Amino acid sequence: MLNTLSGRFLILTTVFVMLAEILIFVPSIARFREDYLADRLQRAQIASLALLADDMLETELEAELLENAGVFNVVLRRDEIRQLMLASPIPQPITGTYDLREAGAMTLIRDAMLRMARPGNEIIRVIGAPVRDAGILIEITMETAPLRAAMIDYGVRILALSAVISVFTALLLFVAVRIVLVKPIKAVVGYMQRYAAAPEDARGIIHPSSSVVELREAEEALMQLQTELTHALKQRERLAQLGGAVAKVSHDLRNILTSAQLFTDRIEMSEDPLVRRLAPKLVNSITRAVSLCEGTLAFGRAEEPSPTFAVVSLHEITADIAESELLAAGSELVGIVNAVPKPMMLRADSEQLFRIVMNLVRNARQAIIATGKPGQITVDAREEEDAWYITVADTGPGLPKRAQDNLFTPFQGGARKGGTGLGLAIAGELARGHGGSVVLKETCPEGTVFEICLPKGDGTI
């Protein structure tokens, strides 16, 4: 009960209402004391008027009038003359005088609280104004025990009533909170639990129905989250299935390429000069294809393997890429310029660096061929104090808006029809493995420029 929202709201409401009643209780007690003393003054005035009507009251009658008034003596001031109208023996000295004619609210509250705090019986003098202007002032002497007892009795009744009001108010609010807040919140929690049990089932998605603005906003936000998560899970499942299929294809393709490697020795022994010149390229291409298949299988199991750093010649890598891509293009539309300085050496994984640059060059080649117009790809590089920078620039048609918005996102960043967008995703991942990055520097109808950054780190060449 105490751990529920409605239970805590019930307790807090009761406490707050009680605090409000206590704030009302203090001035109420002060007001009760003032009325009590005013009543005693009024009774004393009536008794003194009886004496004025008959100056010869018997002693027994005078004592009865004083007892009914609850006072010991009465002093009435009329026409500047102060008269002791009624008198009886005072059992003990007077301990205080209270003038009700000019007492402010704070004074009345202070005197009332002090009286409640004093348990003994004292004799006090009270001064007030006679009712109906029957004189200038009236003064009485009385004991405090009956006053304090009446104040305590009144206070107990006030507190009891306050407690009843607090509990009743809290119960009403408790019921209202359960209907307005707790029940809708439990419904939202129920939707969340059902969705958590089967997130792929679209029937578990919440349908906003609350009339409370805040709860309605929460339901709408939850519905959007559940919808996006359901779509993401479906996409993940499809990607997992695709990954399994790719792993199987890579496994079989690796076996085929491994068999093809066995025949490359015979090709190298050919007497044809063209075959002898192209045979090493074929061997390298098959070796890289086998390595790629093995890397794909490793990626399916975990992540891209960590790079093995070595000092490599970037010019040789880009020259190999240029020759391979020109052969693959089989067209005079594409020209590849290797502008990398020949002496330039850098620290990287040669195979992974080959794949990074090759993916960018291949994307550029395919984009130029798709236009049917001649174009050129330029690979350049520069060395700075903290990093090596490799740029791949082309004179192609530029990247469309969709491709720019989904760069490096597999299956979404493809710039051409039928493209998968895997090239940039692979290049970006391999560059991050080197501690670097691949960024789009520029794209427009006149061409596109990508830049690869490979930080030097603490390594030396």
Rg to the nearest angstrom? 50 Å
Instruction: Determine the strand fraction and express it as a percent band.
Output: 15-25%
pLDDT averaged residue by residue: 78
Question: What is the spatial order of strands in the main beta sheet?
Answer: 2-1-5-4-3
Low-confidence residue ranges: none
* Fraction of helical residues: 55-70%
The domain tally reads 3
Q: In whole angstroms, how far apart are the ends?
A: 71 Å
Assembly status:
single chain
Coarse morphology: rod-shaped
Q: Got a strand count?
A: 12
Catalytic activity: ATP + protein L-histidine = ADP + protein N-phospho-L-histidine
Protein name: histidine kinase
Coiled coil: 215-242
InterPro entries: HATPase_C_sf, HATPase_dom, His_kinase_dom, HisK_dim/P_dom, HisK_dim/P_sf, Sig_transdc_His_kin-like_C
Question: How would you explain this protein's 3D organization?
Answer:
- With 461 residues, the protein is α+β, with helices and mostly antiparallel strands.
- It is 57% helix and 17% strand.
- The strands form three sheets. Strands 2-1-5-4-3 form a five-stranded mixed sheet. The chain has a five-stranded mixed sheet with strand order 7-9-10-12-11.
- Strand 4 (123-128) and strand 5 form a beta hairpin.
- Helix 8 runs parallel beside helix 9 and helix 9 runs antiparallel to helix 11 (422-433).
- The model has no long low-confidence stretch (mean pLDDT 78).
- One of its GO terms (molecular function) is phosphorelay sensor kinase activity.
